[in-house]
Amino acid sequence: MPAFPPDTLILPSHGLPFVGAGVARRHSCARTTQARLAELVAAADEPQPAAEFVPVLFRRELDLQQRFFAMGEAIAHLNHLWRAGRLARLVAGDGKIRFVRS
User: Fold this and answer.
1) pTM score of the predicted model
2) DSSP codes joined into one string, 52-70
3) How would you label 56-86 residue by residue, b for 16+ Cβ within 10 Å and e otherwise?
4) Which structural domain range is residue 59 located in?
5) CB within 8 A of 12, min separation 6: which ones?
6) Chain segment 21-69, per-residue pLDDT in tens
7) Count of domains in the chain?
8) N-term to C-term CA, the chain
């Protein structure tokens, strides 16, 4: 992980801005990301489109705008898992893409 000056202003996509990107914080974020990826893999027992994985990542009700961004995040995570060999990506004859555990 890259080193950042201790007074770096962090502007997260969730929550309030804060100062400091210490090693402990970065490791905490990395652990959280790995746990969320594992949850997606665990939920992929049957081929499903990306939209079915949104509730795995977001456990609250989302408005239309939030759902739009959540869908993008789900697709990014699923494609990462596919490229890492943890999920298979199936393209049906109708062109619809589904993900399933490898």
Assistant:
1) 0.79
2) GGHHHH--S---HHHHHHH
3) bbbeeeeeeeeeeebbebbbebbeebbeeeb
4) 9-101
5) 18
6) 767 777 777 888 899 999 999 999 999 999 999 999 999 999 999 999 9
7) 1
8) 28
